[in-house]
Amino acid sequence: MAQHQHVTHPIVLRRLEVKEVVDLNPRMRRVTLTGHELAGFERDGLDLPALVSTGFDDHVKLVLAEGGDVESALPVQRAQSIDWPEAPHRRMRDYTPSRWDPVARELDLDFVRHGDGPAATWAERAQVGDALHIAGPKASVVLPEGIDWVLLAGDETAIPSVVRFLAERPTESPVQVVLEVRHPEAVQELDLRERDTVRWSVIGDR
């Protein structure tokens, strides 16, 4: 059986800005980020590479802080990685970009609007021009050749990776999508092809 492979990337801390905020539906908010640090740049004498994100399930780490003092919660950049000194007020969350456009320097992050966690709270308050620090992705998955079909399954938090897979199509094989959501308004239109299938399961609040 063919196995997928991982391609690793240098881990870089980047300061980005909000370019656009759009509600895809009552349950999902898309924040488009931009900034010169998505390309290669220099910081503290280090030449840091452009962001690389080639996998549909890549994830970046959002660096947030309880109380809002993000600067004192930031990690220390090294040549190929970052160090994380102790910072009790630091809050980090992993998110999969639903779109990465290196030409336009735009990175889309989709947030499920489900509560008052640090990332959800930031997304609810996000406005054009706001700053957000991200790190990663540190690796991307490369699918093997010769796949007969693909199964993508998950809950609402998996929707961004499904959206990206269907948009970029790392394989021409048919795709079966199974998604479990809590509310009917979380259902959204997907970019399906003729042989693809999708099943939405609405489970309600449990």
Automatic annotation (TrEMBL):
Q: Name one GO molecular function term.
A: ferric-chelate reductase (NADPH) activity
Highest rank taxon of the organism: Bacteria
User: Which residues does the UniProt record annotate as the domain FAD-binding FR-type?
Assistant: 11-144
What are its E.C. numbers? Answer: 1.16.1.9
* Matching SUPFAM superfamilies: Riboflavin synthase domain-like
Specify whether Oxidoreductase is a keyword of the entry.
yes
What are the protein's UniProt keywords? Oxidoreductase
Q: Which CDD domains match?
A: siderophore_interacting
Tell me which PANTHER family the record gives: FERRIC REDUCTASE, NADPH-DEPENDENT, NADPH-DEPENDENT FERRIC-CHELATE REDUCTASE
Q: From the Swiss-Prot or TrEMBL record, give the protein name.
A: NADPH-dependent ferric-chelate reductase
Organism the protein comes from: Oerskovia enterophila
List the taxonomic lineage.
Answer: Bacteria, Bacillati, Actinomycetota, Actinomycetes, Micrococcales
